[in-house]
Design brief:
- The protein is α+β, with helices and mostly antiparallel strands and 82 residues long.
- The chain has a single domain, classed as Fe-S cluster assembly (FSCA) (GMP Synthetase, Chain A, domain 3, 2-Layer Sandwich).
- It is built from two helices and two strands; from the N terminus they run αββα.
- The protein starts with 12 loop residues before the first helix and ends in a 7-residue tail after the last helix.
């Protein structure tokens, strides 16, 4: 069992949102948070983070790129899990 000092608490919704503010839409070159693309952020007690991102167009060809970038930004937060 890890020591209490080694246990990391999950990130807050605010921390996740701040991390997402560094994710730009690859075509518009503006943060997805400013574009209103982030519709929901949930953080479970085990650190699992769910982010709902609405794309600017149906069938967006950059979907995989945006997903990878969002996943990368959130996974860098202490206490987050995929």
């Amino acid at each position: 069992m890890p020591s209490p000092s080694a246990v990391t608490s999950p990130p807050s919704i605010d921390q996740v949102t701040r991390a997402l503010s560094g994710v730009n839409d690859p075509e518009i070159h503006r943060p997805i948070t400013e574009l209103g693309m982030v519709k929901n952020v949930e953080v479970a007690s085990d650190g699992t983070v769910r982010v709902d991102v609405w794309l600017t167009v149906a069938g967006c060809p950059m979907r995989d790129t945006i997903t990878r970038t969002v996943t990368s930004a959130v996974s860098q937060l202490a206490g987050s899990r995929r």
